[in-house]
């Protein structure tokens, strides 16, 4: 199984890259992961609602193009309105995917959200939190949760649960 993280934006602050890299390094023996950075749409200083929709559309097309390159993979989209999963539920979903031989593309949208087209094609809509999280922090939290879930699946002591 391979998980590709399709994320809008690049040039993350050093603390984000350091945190992400730590969990990315730790997870590799358990799960192959790859990061695909998608350029954010160029934004106006005071964008209108129409501009915001255009940014989501442009980024959405790039997300779907990156997803299409891989062939057969499930599309999981991080969305505030998505289903919340416990770490144990995530571990189960990843385990099921591994048994079925499914690859996963996990989408972190841009600052203005994800296009309706991407949401419509999503196999899973997942909310990390009811809180609004900054996109750079989502990268770190996502990778840590993937690592924690895989630790559960491999009986690694990292996750001690409740």
Question: Which fold name corresponds to the CATH topology?
Answer: Alpha/beta knot
Strand order of the largest sheet: 2-1-4-3-5
Average pLDDT, all residues: 92
Shape: globular
The CATH C-level class name: Alpha Beta
> Pairing-aware structural class of the strands and helices?
alpha/beta
CATH architecture: 3-Layer(aba) Sandwich
What percentage of the residues does DSSP assign to strands (E)? 15-25%
Q: What is the total tally of β strands?
A: 5
Reported for the largest beta sheet, the result is: 5 strands, parallel
List the uncertain runs.
none
Task: Give the termini separation.
Answer: 28 Å
Number of helices: 5
The H-level CATH homologous superfamily, spelled out, is SPOUT methyltransferase, trefoil knot domain
Return the domain count: 1
